[in-house]
Amino acid sequence: MPDGRDAEDALTKPTSGDAVPTTGISQAYPDRVEVRGRDLTGDLMGRLSFTEYFHLLVTGDEPTPDQRFFLDLLLVAIAEHGMMPTNVAARMTLAADPGSLQGAIAAGILGAGPVLLGTSEECARLLAEAQERVAAGERPAAVAFAMSRTVRESGERLPGFGHPVHRPQDPRAERILELADERGVSGPHVELARRFGDAVPEVWERPLTLNISMPMAAVMLDLGFPPDIVKGIPILARTAGLIAHLSEERRRSVGFLMAKAAEDSVPYRASETPNA
After folding, report:
1. CATH architecture entry for 120-229
2. 220-232 pLDDT, tens per residue?
C-alpha cells in the first residue's frame, strides 16, 4: 500500500494513457467544500432538505417540486417493514459487537437483495424496455401481455409481482399510483405498470400482488430518474430503518434472543451429513 507522498501520487496519477480521471461530485478545500458546483456552507446548508441534497448529489440537479415530493414519498414508503431478516441480521451483529454500529448497518444492507428489498431496479429495466417497444409503435397492453408471457414461458418470475404478506393488494403500491394520478405525474411508465398489472393475472392464471417495486420504478422513470439509480432509493431508505432498529437494540437488546430462537428451531442431528 502506498503511503505519504506515494499515496497522494496514487490518487492523482492518471490510470491509463493520457486520460485524466475526474469526479463531478465534490471537492474539499482548506476553507470550503464544493458540491456539484455549489458552496456547501454558503449555499446548500440551511437551504436544501436531505432529500433535495440527495437528489443533487446523485443527479447533479436540484429536484423539481414533484421530484422532491415523490422521492420523499418513496423513502418513507420503503424504509421500514417490520422484523425482516435484514433487521434481524443487523441486531444480532450489534449484540455480538456493541461497538460496531457501522458493521451492524453493513450486515443489514448486505442482505438487502431482491427478496427482501424488492426488485425496483429490475422493474425499471423492464419498464424501460417495454417503453422502447411502445415508442416504436406497439400498444402498451400488447407489450405488457407479450413480455409477461415470455417471462412466464421461460419459467422466471416477473419483477414487481407477488408478496408474502400483502394480498391481494400492496397498500403502498396503491397509494403511490393514487398520488401519481393526483399530482399529474403519471406518464407512460405508470401506464405500462398498470398494463402489466392487467396482464399478469391472465398470463399466470391466478392473482399476483402488484408490489411496491413496480410503481416505485414507474414513477421514478416518469419523473426523469435514470434506471440505474432506482435501487439506491430503497437502500437509502432501509438504512434509516436499520439505524432505528439498532438504536432500539442498544436500549432493549433482543439479538441473542433471536440467535437462541434460531438455534432452538433448527435441531442438530449428528447422523446427517451434507451428502446424505
Report:
1. Orthogonal Bundle (1.10)
2. 999 999 888 899 9
